[in-house]
Design a protein that fits this description.
heterodimer; A: 109 residues; five-stranded antiparallel beta sheet; globular; B: 113 residues; mainly beta; four-stranded antiparallel beta sheet; 11 strands; 50% strand
């Protein structure tokens, strides 16, 4: 079951904040977040294991609500370099990921 | 430097031809994966392998084949049976720990003429 990401696209000005959501109808083992620039490979951002722990990476952080099977990615004070497509990958075991269809983020000067 | 390499970066093929995409990793990862990405779409799993000489079909395996004769290598063959093979193909690998994630190679863009 493919996770559902929202919104599909978002446009920001530099310095603004954004939230990207990822929901699954199945119980999850972990959620993985990636960012992909056009024509390049996805780059790993962070992993969240079940337990609701929030992780952070500079001005990008994420949370995982195990009861709702939902994860959110928070981008604060966005920079031009944050532009790209963000994917969540959900795992029901340690073996494989199922990816959402992506959220296209555009940061304007 | 450790990482995943894919070759070639761009590949053109005539209809009816088989083509093999290379994927090599020196991360000592046991698991390897092949994904297909179409414009504006997410990643769809073609095949994956948890260990040498073993592999499983993913969600869209029809028209593709793989082999895993060595831990470092997981080549993907796109056969003439694949009806719409033009896409961006990504290879990934992953360690065995539950906290490990998948790391991706740079991808191969295949165009069928």
């Amino acid at each position: 079951q493919q996770p559902v990401q929202s919104p599909q696209a978002v446009i920001l000005r530099e310095g603004e904040d954004a939230v990207i959501n990822c929901s699954s109808s199945k119980a999850l083992y972990s959620v993985h977040w990636y960012r992909q620039k056009h024509g390049e490979a996805p780059v790993f951002l962070m992993i969240l294991l079940k337990g609701g722990e929030q992780k952070g990476h500079e001005k990008i952080s994420a949370s995982f609500n195990e009861k709702k099977q939902q994860s959110s990615l928070y981008l604060t004070a966005s920079q031009l370099s944050y532009s790209g497509t963000y994917f969540c990958g959900t795992a029901r075991s340690a073996r494989q990921l199922t990816f959402g269809s992506g959220t296209q983020l555009t940061v304007l000067p | 430097d450790g990482g995943i390499t894919q070759s070639p970066k761009y590949l053109f093929r005539k209809e009816g031809q088989n083509v093999t995409l290379s994927c090599e990793q020196n991360l000592n990862h046991d698991a390897m994966y092949w994904y297909r990405q179409d414009p504006g779409q997410g990643l769809r799993l073609i095949y994956y392998s948890q260990i040498v000489n073993d592999f499983q079909k993913g969600d869209i395996a029809e028209g593709y084949s793989v082999s895993r004769e060595k831990k470092e290598s997981f080549p993907l063959t796109v056969t003439s049976a694949q009806k719409n093979p033009t896409a961006f193909y990504l290879c990934a690998s992953k360690g065995t720990a539950s906290t490990d994630t998948q790391y991706f190679g740079p991808g191969t863009r295949l165009t069928v003429l």
